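Hi support team,

I submitted a single chain yesterday and got back a structure, but I'm not sure I'm reading the token output correctly. Could someone confirm the output below corresponds to the sequence I sent? I've pasted both exactly as they appear in my results page.

Thanks,
R.
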Amino acid sequence: MKIRIKETNIKLNTGLSSFLDKKIKALDKFLPDVPDLLFEIELGLTTKHHQKGDIYKSEIQVQLGQKILRSVSEKDNMRSAIIESVEDLERQLRKRKDAYLARRKLK
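Hi R., thanks for writing in. Yes, this is the structure output for that exact sequence:
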């Protein structure tokens, strides 16, 4: 499993980076037999001139065969945005896991 992180208008600190790694590696249990799985993650601020509302954005994208699974979340806290987008991606992975593994066995 590979993780590619893009930072938009923020600088990722070590605490947030380790938190993100832990959350993404928890998704690996849904697809343990998939080699070279690439998670593309974008974390950032939606704008620099925001005073209220959801300003942190977490976007996770993973390619699963021919399908691309994508999850986006905007919250007032970066950790909350990460948690919500990981949970949404987990839901999508659970839904498509069996179909993907069945297609791989047919090849």
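A quick pointer for reading it: The domain at 2-106 is CATH 3.30.160.100 (Double Stranded RNA Binding Domain). Let us know if anything else looks off.

Best,
Support desk
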